[in-house]
Every structure is written in structure tokens, then in C-alpha cells.
Amino acid sequence: MKYREASEKLAAYRKNIAEIRARMRATLAETEPEEVRDHAFATLSGERKLSELFGRKDELFLIHNMGRKCPYCTLWADGFNGVYAHLADRAAFVVSSPDAPAVQKEFAESRGWRFPMVSHQGTSVATDLGYGSEESGWIPGISVLRREGNRIVRLSDTNFHPLDDFSTVWHILDLLPEGTAGWTPKYRYA
After folding, report:
1. Which of 45, 60, 156, 190 is most exposed, with minimal Cβ within 10 Å?
2. Do 96 and 36 contact (CB within 8 A), yes or no?
């Protein structure tokens, strides 16, 4: 296939993806939110309730991260760090993991992360929201929450997985004919 022909075909696929995203947003707009309990999280400065994580915003991006032992979660968090100020301008943004707050702080500092982190260690928040458990293991993803008076509701959520929409790395690698070619994220590169 000639380059121009392939380029036109790929542009049509991208247009289809944009149309699907518009249908997804329309579905979200029609969806009845799910009420969420005001869970408690551990931080270096003590316990913080979910309702406190909103700050002055009405909406919250709650990232479900598997912790420092997951290079994929580290890849996602590295990417979020780069766009954190943009996201936090629109809604509150917090990363939650099962790591203890001191471990989170040390790892975040080693990565240069600027976003706030909370620990769900010893709580049922990740399990209640469908993102795993101590026994079965944790699942990475995101929950979008809204504060409505004294209530907290979940507007949407989705899991993270390799090649998903939540890391630009996958999409840039997709521009190579071989895609990822078996590439996986690492904590450090030579």
C-alpha cells in the first residue's frame, strides 16, 4: 500500500475513534451516578477522608495504582506527572496505592512526581470500587468522582492496561510499523 493511501486510511480510523469517543461521552451523560462511601485513606499527615481529597473542586480523578512494584503503574504515573497541572486545573487529582505513605513519599520523590498520593493500605476502598483486594491483587485504573453536597458519587471508571488510552507512550509506539515490538516499561533506562 502506498504511503498516501495508508495515511488516508489511518486518518479515517482516527475519525472513527473520535466518533466513538463522542458516543461514549453521550452515554456517560445519560448514566446515573453510583454513590460511594466517604472512605478514609492514610497519608504522612494522618488520615484523610475521600471527601477531603476534592479540595475546592467538585470532581476528583482518583487513580488506582498498584504501587511501586509495578513498572506499568509507574509509567502511567510518570505520564500523569507531566499533565498533572492541566488535569488539576479542571478537577482534583490524587493517586492511591497500597504502599504505606512513607514508601509512597520516597518513591514519588525518586520519580519527581508532583501529584498528591494517599494509601488505601488496610482499607476496603479499592475493593469497594472494584480495583482488587489484598488476596486477589490490585488492578490499576481510574474512578471519576463528584461531590454533591454531603454525597460522593462515581461518574465513571475504567481499568488501565498495556496499550490503553491513558499513556501517550503506547500511541507514539503505535506509529512504528512493529508497534511495541515486545517493549515493556522499566524503572530506569540506560
Report:
1. 190
2. no
DSSP string, 151-168: EEEEEEEEE--TT-TT-H
Contact present, 150 and 35 (Cβ < 8 Å):
no
Identity of residue 38: D
CA distances for 43 relative to 15, 31, 104, angstroms:
43, 32, 9
Q: Whole-prediction pTM value?
A: 0.94
Please check the confidence at residue 39 and state whether its pLDDT lies above 90.
yes
Alpha carbon distance 86, 125 (integer Å): 26
Mind listing the pLDDT tens digit for each residue in 130-150?
999 888 999 999 999 999 999
pLDDT at 190: 85
C-alpha 109/C-alpha 140 separation (Å) is 21
For residue 125, give the nearest of 50, 32, 34 by alpha carbon. 50
Cα distances (angstroms) measured from residue 54 to each of 51, 88, 91, 152: 6, 10, 8, 10
Where are any strands of DSSP class E within the chain? 34-36, 40-43, 46-49, 59-64, 92-97, 117-119, 132-133, 137-138, 141-148, 151-159
